[in-house]
Amino acid sequence: MIREKLKIIPEPVKASLNDGVFFLSQKTTIQADLTSAGNGEYLKQVLAIQYGLNLAFEESSQDNEGKSSIILKTSNEKDLNNSEKYSLLISKENIIISATSSVGVFYGIQTLLQLIPHKTLKDDKISLEVSIPCVSIEDFPRFKWRGFMLDESRHFFGKEQVKKILDLMALLKLNTFHWHLTDDQGWRIEIKKYPLLTEIGSKREGTITSNRFLRSNQKIKAPKDEIPILGCYTQQDLRELIQYATERFITIIPELDFPGHTTSVLAAYPELSCTGGPFKVSTRFGIHKDVLCIGKEKVFEFIQNVLDEIIEIFPSNIIHIGGDEAPNRRWKKCFDCQARIKDESLGSVENLQGYFTNRITDYLGSKGKRIIGWNEILNDDLIDNALCQYWINHFDKVLEHIRKGRQVVMSEMKALYFDYPYRLIPLHQTYNYDPIPSNLEEKFHKNILGLEACLWTEYVKNKDKLEWLTFPRLIAVAETGWTPKNKRNFESFLKRLERFLPLLSALDVNYPKKEEFLQEQ
Ligand code: ACM
Ligand code: ZN
Q1: Residues 93, 325, 336, 516: which is the catalytic one?
Q2: Active site includes 178?
Q3: Mapped to the 3 state alphabet, what secondary structure does 406-456 carry?
Q4: Is the beta carbon of 391 within 6 A of some atom in ligand 1?
Q5: Among residues 33, 84, 183, 419, which one is catalytic?
Q6: How many separate helices (H) and strands (E) can be counted in the chain?
Q7: Which of 93, 266, 276, 500 gives a 20 to 30 Å CA spacing to 68?
Q8: Where are the beta strands (DSSP E) in 41-81?
């Protein structure tokens, strides 16, 4: 099979292997038209860092197709259907990557990089001639949304690790980095108007050491370590990382989780709660009963001010507002929340979160932004263009949302939650998951924007564990997001993975042994 010879992940839509090879050497030049210049610089950089090749780079017109060149061409024709499409043609004379837009050229480069033999990486890099097979590839993604979520509230990994993840995502043609930046256990972004969010909210004094107590009787005290966990990103850091992601055609979607999962906010500003506090940044996990008060106007003022700074920094059209696991226990007893229910004729406490979600959605809408929230935001009155991220329960409501013509991103917990060990979610379970439910009528398939894997980090204390849980499962997700369903095949994937894993090693990524990630099938 050609595909097991080429070993590209995600498997391209169409690939054929031709006779001969292209010799990549120090004499090869990179030629790019004006629109592809950024991509040309990027390719030059990667070849230098990873392969020790220092190629000449020139901007050139399209009719100057020199010998032994890598030629990057962007036609700039509008292709509204699939702007990520590219073609890659490798002949004995040259390599041509063409696309209608820069992102397509970028993905063509990623495919090319996978065709360069890895043995040249790192140790024995420099100036040897490397042969690349002659191929013709036509390729485009199945889904628009191919994502990965990292929780940096529970543990903080920092800029260098985020850059490494963005690099790996680019290699896999993943395009959406969902960044869970706030939760009960830590607020991780500087907000100039509310300095206590980071001064107080980004520090916790320790962490429970076992999840055995999570759903059991809370009166039993869970053991806790005394290791402080702290860290946050300045707005300058955020801008730097957004720039880094943008150069890799990755959109960063920040998540600020409201109205639940907000103990770190309440520790800093207890007046935003129903009871007035006091509170501490939480050292345990699970659902917390103290949440933002929906009766108090100052809570909306706070959220709007925070969002004003967020949309100033993040160019993404979509902002994640969380919305998961918000219990209404406090709202039931709160004078202000009860007054809100009455004044807005909401009928019952069950409708308070819907009111909250719609107000935030409207506010962001007035700024030209759209919201996404976990599937708990779904309610009968939800504003039309709100996007839903499915993770657990109430799938009937999610289907109803889709059948109303609205959009979802799929993060099915049983396949795409990477905090679960391989024993519970082995690689084939992730690979075989399809984002389109089998009982969904074809006319609604387009409402499923794609899929996103999530790494929650309650028990992920360091980067080694982060990578170990993420790889190779994220590679499987990348293939599901990109490759046509009828070309996906787990056996073939495993064969191609044999070549991908050494690349991960060369890139200093920690991942488990095959026996671990395959488990029982
Ligand atoms: C979630 O896992 N609480 C969205
Ligand atoms: Zn209240």
Answers
A1: 325
A2: no
A3: CCEEECCHHHHECCCCCCCCCHHHHHHCCCCCCCCCHHHHHHEEEEEEEEC
A4: yes
A5: 183
A6: 18, 19
A7: 500
A8: 56-59, 69-74
Nearest ligand 1 atom, CA 417: 2
63 counts as catalytic: no
CA 240 to ligand 1 centroid distance, Å? 28
Q: Which tokens in the block code for residue 483?
A: 């490759």
- Which of 255, 391, 459 most suits a substitution to test ligand 1, by most atoms within 8 Å of the C-beta? 391
Q: Which of 21, 234, 145 is nearest to 436 (CA)?
A: 145
Q: Which residues pair with 22 in a beta bridge?
A: 132
Of 118, 261, 288, 401, catalytic: 261
CB distance 138 to ligand 1 below 6 Å? no
Task: Using the mean position of ligand 2's atoms as its centre, give its distance from the Cα of residue 482 in Å.
Answer: 45
Place of tokens 């099938």: 521
User: Which residue's CA lies nearest to atom 3 of ligand 1?
Assistant: 324
Q: Which ligand is nearest to the CA of 391?
A: 1
Which ligand is nearest the CA of 389, by number? Answer: 1
Per-residue pLDDT 10s for the chain (521 aa) are 777 788 999 999 999 999 999 999 889 999 999 899 999 999 999 999 888 889 999 887 655 566 789 999 998 787 777 899 999 999 999 999 999 999 999 999 999 999 987 655 555 555 567 899 999 999 999 999 999 999 999 999 999 999 999 999 999 999 999 999 999 999 999 999 999 999 999 999 999 987 655 555 555 677 889 999 999 999 999 999 999 999 999 999 999 999 999 999 999 999 999 999 999 999 999 999 999 999 999 999 999 999 999 999 999 999 999 999 999 999 999 999 999 999 999 999 999 999 999 999 999 999 999 999 999 999 999 999 999 999 999 999 999 999 999 999 999 999 999 999 999 999 999 999 999 999 999 999 999 999 999 999 999 999 999 999 999 999 999 999 999 999 999 999 999 999 899 889 989 999 999 999 998 65
Task: Say whether 261 is catalytic.
Answer: yes
CB 325 less than 6 A from any atom of ligand 1: yes
Domains and CATH numbers, the chain: 2-139 (3.30.379.10), 149-215+235-330+358-483 (3.20.20.80)
Compute how many other C-beta atoms are within 10 angstroms of the C-beta atom of residue 192: 11
Residue 286 Cβ < 6 Å to ligand 1:
no
pTM value is 0.96
Instruction: Using the atom order of ligand 1, give the atom closest to the CA of residue 456.
Output: 2
Q: What is the DSSP letter of 193?
A: T
Token couple for 62: 């399209």
Nearest to 130 by CA among 19, 32, 26: 26
Q: Mark 267-303 as b/e (b = at least 16 C-beta within 10 Å).
A: bbbeebbbeeeebebbbbbeebebbbbbbbeebeebb
Determine the 3-state secondary structure of 516 from DSSP.
Answer: helix
